[in-house]
Each structure stands twice: as structure tokens, then as C-alpha cells.
Amino acid sequence: MKKRNNRLAIKTVSIFFVFLLIITACGPREPQASINMVALKGPTSMGLSKLLKDQKEGKSKSLSSYTIVDSPDQAVTALVNGEADLATVPSNVAALLYQKLNGDVQVLHINTLGVLYILDPQGRVKSLEDLKGKTLYASGKGASPEYVLSYLLDEKGIDRKSVKIEWEQDHTQALQALAKDPDALALLPQPFVTVAQTKMKNLKVALDLTKEWDKVQEGKNPTSALVMGVTLARKSFVDKNKALIDRYLEEAHESLNYVVNHPQEAARIIGEDLGIMKAPIAEKALPYCNLVYIDGQEMKDKLGGFLSVLFKENPKSLGGQIPGEDFYYFAK
After folding, report:
1. pLDDT tens string for the chain (332 positions)?
2. Which residue, 296, 327, 270, 272, is CA-closest to 95?
3. What is the per-residue DSSP string for 18-81?
4. Which of 92, 200, 250, 275 has the fewest CB atoms within 10 Å of its CB?
């Protein structure tokens, strides 16, 4: 009788655990446990390099995978197709995606401020006013470089026509044109500036357009910033995974602090572990890439102001409309 009762008890317990398994399997699905990221090669991913390395070593508590791509189009495609949950992209591309996906995009944080610099082989340029009467070789017509420069000239009361701007197809061609015309100037981004200085030893950084932008913000409230790169996600993903997103933000902030405070080791990660660019170039370029972590209200003020400038220059650069309030993510 005792053995029979034991068998009955064991059978009852077994049935109970099977029932629990069925309930668990059929119950509501848990939010996604990790994030797939696509990172754009260059400054927008350099501040995240420590986090990407941690993921590679199984140490990240938010990322399950990442892919580094060469162009914004590749990052956009991965996000739109659902191959990635998060992406690092230029700020205007984020605004375009917001329109394309009917608001199903949120910016999580700013990762890069301005990376644009005026280069002068002769060392004559000390201010924006010194651009008058000069020839400037640049690339990026119809994009942020053109709009940023135009805005700064207008804010300083400088006639745009007083600067002869020759728009080249890419950064390399702009540098080649400058090499043939030593009396001219060039507008180039980091880290290409650092690469260019290895080829033209007399090439000097005359103006940092991020600092020039900050100067013209004095007295304005709120102040904007020259925002070149952001990290964004599909809003539908964020809504289902807020705790995971907040965990990512903590790790992204920690990564940025590590990169800023350990540039030599960060350059090694960027070059050897991630292949974003060669480590020696990365180490020289890091101090000038304006890598940041900015979220919350400050992100909204700085990015919103910058997008307003782009919209004024060319509404099509943002898809014809400035993103709404839901474009910005606020952690709890």
C-alpha cells in the first residue's frame, strides 16, 4: 500500500511539472532578451568600440550581435528589414527614416558631434571671416556639410557668394584638388583629416566647425549643436524592450567614457578588434572626432535645433518635415 501511494505521489508531481511546462510554453512571450546592432564605420561607431568588443567577448548584457557596415544605406536597410534593432547613422538620416517608417523610429542618444574642419596649407585662416575671397574645396553638396557651412556664414553675416566653393565628388577628390591649388582651402571630416595630414605634411587645421557652431549659439535658448551621428531604434522594438534599451544606454555611456579616457587602448580596439580604421590613425583622430554620449532633454534640444537648421536650408534633407516629439527617447 505504501509503495502504491509513493508511485501515486511521484505520478502526481510529474503531471504537475508537465502542466507547468505547457503553461509556460503557451503563455505570453517574454520581451527580446538582447539586441542586434548595425554600426556605421567611422566616428559614429568609435565611441561604442568598447561595448562592441565586450559583446564579442560575451561580456555585454544588452547586445547579442553587431555588424559594422561601410555606408548609411546599409545601416538603413538592416534596420528597415528587421535584421537589426539598433543602428548608428547620420542625424539627418535618422530624420528621413522617421518619415519613411511613419514615426516608427526613436533616437536613443547622440554619439558624435561635428567632425568637419577647414584645412589651410598656408596657415592664413583664423576665423570664418577669413574665408572671404578664398577658394574652398569640399564634398557633400546637398548634404550636411553644405548646410552647416551656409548656416555659419549666414550667422556671421558673411555673404555666401564671397567664398568660392568647389564641390567635389568625394573627400579624396577634394584633397587632390587642394594639392594642385596650394592657395586654396578644404572642408573635410575626421578621420579623413588625419589621413590627409599624413599625405600633405603642411596641412593645418584652421577651423573646427563644431566650435564655430557653438560660438554662434551664445545667447540662444535652447542652444543647438552640430550633431553628426546618433543611435536609433525602431520605436515598436523600444516599446516592448524598455528595460533592455535602458541597459544598452548604460553600457553605451560606459563605453564612451572608456574610449575618451583610454585613447591608446581604444585605438587598438578600433583598429585590431573591429577593423574600423588603422590603430595609429584612430589614436591621432580620436581627440578630434567629438565623440559624445548625450541623451534625454539635452539630446532633444541639441538635435532638434540642428534639424531645424537643416530644414530651413532644405526641407527635403529631412523628408519634408521635422520629426515630432516621439522622435526622442527618454529613459525612465
Report:
1. 544 544 544 444 444 443 333 333 444 344 556 899 999 999 999 999 999 999 999 999 999 999 999 989 999 999 999 899 999 999 999 999 999 999 999 999 999 999 999 999 988 999 999 999 999 999 988 888 999 999 999 999 999 999 999 999 889 999 999 989 988 999 999 998 998 888 888 888 999 999 999 999 888 877 889 999 999 999 999 999 999 999 999 999 999 999 999 999 999 999 999 999 999 999 999 999 999 999 999 999 999 999 999 999 899 989 999 999 999 999 87
2. 327
3. HHHHHHHHHSPPPPPSSEEEEEESSHHHHTTHHHHHHHHTT--SSEEEEEEESSHHHHHHHHHT
4. 275
Q: Do the beta carbons of residue 173 and residue 25 sit within 8 Å?
A: no
Residue type, 160: R
Spatial contact of 117 and 89, defined as CB atoms under 8 Å apart:
no
As given in the structure block, the three cell numbers for residue 252 are 553605451
